[in-house]
Design goal:
The chain is an alpha/beta fold. The chain has twelve helices and ten strands. Strands 1, 2, 3, 4, 5, 6, 7, 8, 9 and 10 form a ten-stranded mixed sheet that branches. InterPro entries: BUG, Bug_dom1. It comes from Advenella mimigardefordensis (strain DSM 17166 / LMG 22922 / DPN7).
Amino acid sequence: MNTLSNVSRFLQRSIALAISTAIIPLATAGEFPENAIRLSVGYPAGGLSDVVARRLAEKVADTLSVPVVVENRPGAGGTINIADVSRAKPDGYSLAFSATSPLTLTPYFSKVSYVPEKAVTPVIGIMYSPVVLLGTQTLGATDFNAFIAKAKQEPGKLRWATSGMGTIGHIMFGQIAHDAGLDMTLIPYKGGSQQMNDALGGQFEIFSTNVSATLIENIKAGKLHALAIGAEHRIDGLPDTPTFTELRQPKANLKSNFGIVAPAGTPATVIETLNKAFNDALHDPAIADSLRQSGNIPSGGSAQAFQQVIDEESRNNQAIIQQAGLAAK
């Protein structure tokens, strides 16, 4: 009896140990996140995207109780940043803050190392930056209709500068020139800084760029003339500037969308956790107010909503490129 009793007790202890051992990984395995999160920004330090990303990172770090480390990965219009994150492990610890153009526009003009539709998974839309059509001091017109009239009176003479081929400014040029039947000379720059310097110096007549606090200051000072803006409604910083929709140019109502993406294949539960944390950060009054003061509009919402923005933008860009006959790759 003692032997049987000992065997019975041994078996009971063995079974209990086996059960507890099986349960331990489930009980002790931490939920995402456990480690620091890397947020790469596809633009230089000190710019709007960098500043916004760092403010968001601080809030998200507080919410998730892990560090969120911001790294700058500028170059090639943001495609280097997207390529890097697309190769990262899909575990939620590598994210990218980026404009949507490396997914929806650049691939139509340049060869990229990733397949846009398969490279990343959207996490959240952060903001959109309206694109403003501007006239310099050499244009001789201060509103959109006067610009159109002048361009028709002087075919081939007006110079339209863009920060590069395959940019939003390039697309806007093609759309307006096509719809209004204008003949203008396109001047592509290799970045926005030199373009702005030359705009203030009157080296060309027309250009477009994303709205910013500095741009608004130059407009209010009379150094540049805001002819139209690509936004759903007039913005507080430029209340006298009509939208393209108001001017019956709805296809030119373009804007730059920015958001957070993760490597393709990142688990849905991880995306949900990140989405909630970034949504909470966007609702912080200081962050939301700073975006609006610079002329940008906070986005937020679900990952699915951001995917819809990307898909629609890509379709629209493709249509404009084909319709306007812009040189694609």
